[in-house]
Amino acid sequence: MHGARTSPDEDGGPRSAGGHWAGTGRMGTIGELGEFGLIGRLTRRLPQGPAVRLGPGDDAAVVAAPDGRVVATTDLLVEGRHFRRDWSGPYDIGHKAAAQNLADVVAMGARPTALLVGFAAPPSTDAAWAERLYDGLADECRRAGASVAGGDVVGAPEVTLAVTALGDLGGGAPLTRSGARPGDVVAVRGRLGHASAGLALLAAGRDGPAELLAAHRRPEPPYEAGAEARAAGATALLDVSDGLVQDLGHIAAASGVRIDVDSATLVVPEVLGPDGLRHVLTGGEDHGFAGTFPPDSPPPPSWTVIGTVGRGAGVRVDGRVPDATGWDHFRG
Ligand SMILES: Nc1ncnc2c1ncn2[C@@H]1O[C@H](COP(=O)(O)OP(=O)(O)OP(=O)(O)O)[C@@H](O)[C@H]1O
Ligand SMILES: Cc1ncc(C[n+]2csc(CCOP(=O)(O)O)c2C)c(N)n1
Ligand SMILES: [Mg+2]
Ligand SMILES: [Mg+2]
Ligand SMILES: [Mg+2]
């Protein structure tokens, strides 16, 4: 029987009532498996998509790049910083490591093709825990149409994932942060504030609402947003990783424009609680998308228009410079 803090266990991973990995005890530890035993157990769970011409098993992988250019991005996921093993199960952590990288490829207007995965964990880690993590990683890759081309494993005091994602622009121009122009509208696609609200609940020792805890554990970037933005003629695009205001600030700075957000246009679901607007404005890690669109080619209805681009600099919310903007790794 699972406790209320257990995320929907379609991963099938065992957990105690508190959300901890309960372990199977059947397969032993990764220390017992050894480096190459572990690599074998992990890589056989991975999807092999068409772009990966040579996958795990050699000194390097070979990935097709029909466009002639490769989109490449990397993000780290560190235990205690991005996740806690008592708050997230292995499937959640694998899912999140894939999602946060795949979202960056999509945010360039590209199609994700392959991931390279660096995996560090203590030798005492359950082998089954590591396998569930790879199941989460593999399933999220499948959802985005990508596969895992290779990686590395290493023993370390804490779990760390260093994921590199590659993507294909399919002959199109990249959707950068620098193309916003005065007169454009600003629009968002996907959840905002949910992961942040879920994290606050976990930090407060709460066991629900389940959808918010799940949002922290398994971000769900709407991967179709990149193609939608491109088709609509977006001038700039990024995924919201650190907080809406902070990330819009990157578009404002790179494009040399001012962005004005009208908070009344933001969707703040009741479930986010009394701090809902703060979570939506400054909460990262849902990996929704924010983009700018010329006034004569607005985004499709799946997007919400939340503001405008003007001359000047910085981001204003309801005409004011906000005190909080989002996450900074070195400022807490
Ligand atoms: N250690 C580094 N060396 C070289 N470039 C870096 C380094 N760290 C970040 N960058 C570059 O700085 C830019 C901003 O990085 P940032 O990590 O904030 O973007 P992101 O990956 O979209 O956001 P997030 O990490 O919050 O998901 C990116 O172009 C990134 O490649
Ligand atoms: C245990 C724990 N404590 C705090 C947080 C919050 N957090 C960590 S990184 C980040 C921004 C995006 O990261 P990056 O820029 O590295 O992609 C946020 C909001 C968390 N997820 N887990
Ligand atoms: Mg990054
Ligand atoms: Mg990004
Ligand atoms: Mg960040």
UniProtKB/TrEMBL annotation:
Binding-site residues for Mg(2+) 4, renumbered to this chain: D59, T73, D104
Binding site for ATP: Y134, G151, D152, R177, S241
Keywords: ATP-binding, Kinase, Magnesium, Metal-binding, Nucleotide-binding, Thiamine biosynthesis, Transferase
Signal peptide: none
Catalytic activity: thiamine phosphate + ATP = thiamine diphosphate + ADP
Stretches for region Disordered: 1-26
Binding residues for Mg(2+) 3: D59, D104, D239
Residues that coordinate or bind substrate: H82, E285, W327
Pfam families for the chain: AIRS (PF00586)
Pathway: Cofactor biosynthesis; thiamine diphosphate biosynthesis; thiamine diphosphate from thiamine phosphate: step 1/1
UniProt: Mg(2+) 2 binding residues: D75, D104
EC number: 2.7.4.16
Domain of life, per lineage: Bacteria
Enzyme category, top tier: transferase
General function of this protein: Catalyzes the ATP-dependent phosphorylation of thiamine-monophosphate (TMP) to form thiamine-pyrophosphate (TPP), the active form of vitamin B1.
Record-stated family: Belongs to the thiamine-monophosphate kinase family.
Protein name (record): Thiamine-monophosphate kinase
